[in-house]
Design brief:
The protein is mostly helical. It has helices at about 15-25, 55-60, 65-70, 105-110, 130-150, 160-170, and strands at about 125-130, 155-160. About 15% of the residues are buried.
Length: about 170
């Protein structure tokens, strides 16, 4: 519709990585990229093992490869999450409060929690709702945790309503 001159503006969301680049190439002089105040977060169920132990949560947080995950988003208006839940440009944003990427310290914390090199770590499920540009990032992170900490996670990708139903039926660990 935009290319037929039936729309004055088109907001491009959830087109996947290739869609943003295609729109930019085809309409370079008209293409405008603006920040979106959205935060994607990993939330741990701290009421039951293994994430009831702060050392385990810190180990996982210290091995989130924020810059590499950011690259998987296709470098849109996104930035790596280093400042908490409040997006850059918003009042209250606190830059650089995230734990630093430190795989050696993370492995040490996991060992102190009783899971040296991931041994004995229970089966853990990470559930996300389907967003094309985000899914690759989570697949990458699950693989990174396995490589870095020796833990194995199951990634469950669900449509929006199925995701919320799944949470209501019993929250996954992440």
């Amino acid at each position: 519709l935009y290319e037929q001159d039936l729309l004055d503006i088109l907001l491009i969301l959830n087109w996947g990585r290739g869609g943003f680049e295609l729109a930019r190439q085809r309409h370079l002089s008209e293409y405008y990229q603006s920040p979106i105040f959205t935060t994607f977060a990993l939330c741990f169920d701290t009421t039951r093992p293994p994430f009831a132990d702060v050392r385990v949560r810190r180990a996982f947080a210290m091995t989130v490869a924020r810059e590499q995950s950011f690259d998987l988003f296709g470098k849109r208006a996104s930035r790596p999450a280093t400042g908490g839940f409040i997006s850059p440009g918003m009042p209250g944003h606190s830059p650089d409060i995230a734990l630093a990427y430190d795989p050696d310290q993370a492995r040490q914390l996991l060992a102190e929690a009783g899971y040296p090199r991931g041994q004995g770590f229970p089966e853990v499920e990470l559930a996300i709702f389907y967003v094309p540009e985000v899914e690759d990032s989570f697949h990458y992170q699950v693989q990174k945790w396995h490589q870095t900490l020796g833990v194995t996670l199951t990634l469950k990708v669900l449509e929006w309503t199925a995701y919320w139903r799944h949470l209501a039926d019993g929250a996954p660990q992440i």
